[in-house]
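Expect chain and fold; thus:
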Amino acid sequence: MDYTFRPVQDTDQEAFLNILNYFIEHSFAAYPDKKASSSTFEKFCESAKGYPFYVVEVDDGQVVGFGLLRPYHESATFAHTGVLTYFLLSDYVHRGIGSALFNRLMADAQELGMKILVAHISSKNQPSLNFHKKHGFIECGRLRDIGRKFGQSFDVVWVQKFLE
């Protein structure tokens, strides 16, 4: 399967929301319990301003995922640390696309002088926890029973990877 990564555009808003809302409605991968709106897309774009934000487009032009890098904190004190966020529709996992997107974002982070990447993941999202572990992330923190969705409590697991 052919796919490309390209910078997100305003015209990707509908595809972005469809992907994010799928995960909101069907999984613990996205934390909200209500569907995202156009303001969510705008917030993601603003948080990644000046940093890479890609959509994953397959050979027929369909957007099947997205990934972005954003600063951990606005203070220059944390300029060497980035936060990763990515979502890929389930029909496209286990094809190397997620790993390729991760590698692209990791290379971008290194070009930006980042030394550490972090991500936060629901404890109920075992596939994502496994993906991050496979890619060298280690658990560095856990907020127990902090979230509640679908009538179930979950932890938020923080993971990190040193790029040096």
